[in-house]
Amino acid sequence: xxxxxxxxxxxxxxxxxxxxxxxxxxxxxxxxxxxxxxxxxxxxxxxxxxxxxxxxxxxxxxxxxxxxxxxxxxxxxxxxxxxxxxxxxxx
Length: 91
What we know:
This protein is mainly beta.
């Protein structure tokens, strides 16, 4: 089973610690509970995976902070990166 790191309990993405192929299971810890998620597509090492479906325009949360927004629907288990998110400066 592949591993992922959930940085903050409020995050809706986690970071995979090794490349994950579509259909592989990913395990991460959320507040002491082990959660298992199936990757919907290839997720390169150190990239983000969606922990739930994100709607178009919804905030992408990592570190407990908004780091961008979904530019399309991002399904649970999908790769989250610049091809489906828009990062912006927060002032």
